[in-house]
Design goal:
It is a single chain. By secondary structure, this protein is an alpha/beta fold. It has one domain: SGNH hydrolase (Rossmann fold, 3-Layer(aba) Sandwich), CATH 3.40.50.1110. 41% of the residues lie in helices and 15% in strands. The strands form two sheets. It has a five-stranded parallel beta sheet with strand order 2-1-3-4-5, sandwiched between helices. Strands 6-7 form a two-stranded antiparallel ribbon. Helix 1 crosses helix 8 and helix 3 runs parallel beside helix 8. The radius of gyration is 18 Å and the shape is globular.
């Protein structure tokens, strides 16, 4: 099994308290296809964010479905060529129905979108429009929630097909995911290359599998949570610094 790494860093970051103002819950929206569907937030993601912000200050909503392209979420999706499919955005509507139910009558302090998807787009050769589509999805969510301060964390595709033998646009999607995350101060990505070796949920040994091992999913949840906490705390620190400078004038 490839070495699972940065565990110590994840544990340290995950227990850091948020710095900033009072009031409101931290909303985490988890979505995507099979590797998000396989993640049980209650095992590692939710406990990690609750340790950082307090159990009563966290709302976690997950809606995922295996084998689905990003157009099932992004309503303005267009291919580089050919006819645009009619089915677009239906899974996004399912997700937002769950989100709106979860936050009804509640004050939301921060929103973090956690995304693990791209395998299907890599298979269908839509890597050339993946960055545009993912940015569009984030903007779509921001507009619908009426917020310009949404954080997002992307799970980058693993090393399952870095030679592009099964999914022709595998590395294109990987690169697009990193590009989107690194070009936005509110975005980040996490590595999954070490999560797809070991023993899977069926008790089978896997090596460089499309999906993650049982332990891999546990570390995946912690990794996503740690990066989410890091983004929120970093912004809070920046706001506090700006406030101190303002009052010092």
């Amino acid at each position: 099994m490839k070495r699972l790494y940065v565990i110590t860093l994840i544990v340290i970051v995950s227990v850091l308290p948020v710095i900033g103002g009072e009031g409101g819950s931290h909303l985490f929206i988890l979505s995507g296809q099979s590797n998000m569907a396989g993640l049980d937030p209650k095992i590692s993601f939710t406990p990690t964010v609750e340790a950082a912000f307090g159990k009563d200050n966290v709302i976690v909503v997950k809606s995922a479905q295996g084998g689905q392209p990003i157009r099932r979420w992004y309503k303005e999706w267009k291919p580089t060529e050919g006819k645009t499919p009619n089915t677009k955005g239906d899974l996004y509507d399912v997700l937002m129905k769950k989100v709106n139910t979860a936050i009804k009558d509640k004050q939301v302090k921060t929103v973090t979108f956690v995304w693990m998807q791209g395998e299907r787009d890599a298979l269908d050769k839509h890597g050339d429009v993946y960055a545009i589509s993912l940015n569009g999805l984030i903007e779509q969510l921001s507009a619908d929630m009426g917020r310009e301060d949404i954080y997002f964390v992307i799970g980058r595709l693993s090393d399952f097909d870095n030679e592009n033998k099964i999914c022709p646009h595998w590395t294109k999607v990987r690169e697009a995911q990193v590009k989107v995350a690194e070009n936005n101060k509110r975005g980040a990505w996490v590595d999954t290359d070490d999560l797809n070796d070991g023993i899977n949920i069926m008790g089978q040994k896997i090596i460089n599998d499309l999906h993650y091992s049982v332990e891999g999913y546990k570390h995946f949840g912690k990794r996503l949570a740690a990066k989410s906490i890091e983004l929120i705390n970093h912004n809070a620190q920046q706001n506090n610094t700006a406030e101190r400078k303002k009052h010092a004038r």
